[in-house]
Design a protein that fits this description.
- By secondary structure, this protein is of the alpha/beta class.
- About 20% of the residues lie in helices and about 35% in strands.
- It has 4 helices and 12 strands, in the order αβββαββαβαββββββ.
- Strands 1, 2, 3, 4, 5, 6, 7, 8, 11 and 12 form a 10-stranded mixed sheet that branches. Strands 9-10 form a two-stranded antiparallel ribbon.
Length: about 160
């Protein structure tokens, strides 16, 4: 699907059946793919990326993993090994409300990766957190199974697919 988020806003904003929401500008793009979309799967955690690996080990089937890391800038929740695992397993993108590391390597991978910033330090791995729960950041609540659309202009969330 070819799209731009401005065109999607023009076409679907104000139509209640789509419940189109625009995420506040807060992310930098680090992946080799700037434009991506797919159904949402979520994680809610803090400075612990054990659940990230568990999620990315499962078949992505074109989904986007939305990770609410509480906005922490003290640890990286995703690195090149996890991004490579996501790519191998068919995830189309990862959105991190937190930091990533290995940004140069991730930039060479054909996957969308949005994050607040980079940080060289890895996380603890206690597997604390929740998966497939509603998470909120950037002025938007992300529900598992909703659709995320991202490009150079921003990130949109819709209750249903916006495929024409």
């Amino acid at each position: 699907m070819n799209f731009t988020t401005p065109d999607l806003c023009d076409a679907f904003d104000g139509k209640p059946e789509f419940d189109l929401r625009v995420v506040e500008p807060m992310f930098q793009s680090f992946g080799g793919r700037d434009v991506f979309h797919g159904p949402i799967s979520t994680l809610k955690l803090f400075e612990d990326n054990g659940l990230v690996r568990k999620a990315l080990e499962t078949p992505g089937s074109g989904r986007v993993l939305v990770i609410d890391g509480g906005g922490s800038l003290r640890r990286a929740l995703l690195g090149d090994q996890l991004a490579a695992l996501a790519l191998k397993n068919g995830w189309t993108g990862i959105v991190v409300n937190g930091c990533i590391r290995d940004s140069r390597a991730i930039g060479g991978m054909e996957i969308g990766v949005l994050a607040l910033d980079t940080h060289p330090q890895k996380t603890v791995k206690k597997n604390h957190g929740e998966s497939d729960v509603a998470v909120s950041f950037g002025g938007v609540t992300f529900h598992p199974g909703e659709w995320l659309y991202a490009d150079e202009d921003g990130v949109l969330v819709s209750t249903t697919s916006l495929h024409h």
